[in-house]
């Protein structure tokens, strides 16, 4: 449900002072008593007051615009999701404003404020790599700002979400490596606080435990998604006394530099090390070797994300229930994990 923004009048009423006093306090005018100015600023922050020249008209007007915040548009997954989100929004008569965080928590908070100032009617967000404090998102929830999270999220945020079953997908990827004869399996994970990554690590551990293969412990290393860090972590993993003969990576963007590092060590893929990844980027079908990867239903996820957001925007009911939509994935098997003498089950 779209709600009216906090105004100077609201602050004045709450503190039982005049509107002009609030205005002067927010502008730092010297004639305002310091205690009054502090009280005004403190309440403005608590209520998330945003100065806006057209705020008075917001309740009556419709911008029919939604904001989308993603970690990085150079990642194929997010650019593909954005394309599909925009298409679904356009079909519903909405336009899209886009911001990217470049994996920065600070940019994420700034992007949210900028989009709200631009009078978007709702937000679609995938959290940045560095985000481990969710107060800024919780504030949106408390203010009833229409919100849907996708891909990267946090369990304790009370918002609608569109995600995949990361645990099941990783279990499937790991089990495939086991079926190909791998007995020591590593995992190149994302940042240690990232829920999506931890869910995939959990699925990997469960599959390894069920089949009695070596995994976990020193075979799980965390990357920050950069090529340089991935290469360092891969070389560390492959320098273990008993290095893995199979590796699951958190994403294709991690898999590519990981494979480069393995080749630099003279390892043959998949005979020495079999690889399975996530996201099934288009280049995976042309990479050498072609990369086995988990494919996510991007168009369906985008359509569901927009549907859940518009349901909140276009209702007058303040108690729209939160929904979590969990989408199924598909393992696309290619040369990086297919070993001689083994076949697909």
UniProtKB/TrEMBL annotation:
UniProt xrefs under PROSITE patterns: HTH_LACI_2, SIGMA54_1
SUPFAM superfamilies tied to this protein: lambda repressor-like DNA-binding domains, Periplasmic binding protein-like I
Keywords: DNA-binding, Transcription, Transcription regulation
Occurrences of domain HTH lacI-type (ranges): 6-60
Superkingdom as given in the UniProt entry: Bacteria
Species assigned in the record: Spirosoma sordidisoli
Entry annotated with the keyword DNA-binding: yes
InterPro entries recorded: HTH_LacI, LacI/GalR-like_sensor, Lambda_DNA-bd_dom_sf, Peripla_BP_I, RNA_pol_sigma_54
Cell membrane found in the keyword field: no
Protein's name in the database: LacI family transcriptional regulator
GO MF assignments: DNA-binding transcription activator activity; sigma factor activity; transcription cis-regulatory region binding
PANTHER family assigned to the protein according to its UniProt record, in alphabetical order: HTH-TYPE TRANSCRIPTIONAL REGULATOR GALS, LACI-RELATED TRANSCRIPTIONAL REPRESSOR
Coiled-coil residues: none
Pfam families registered for this protein in UniProt: LacI, Peripla_BP_3
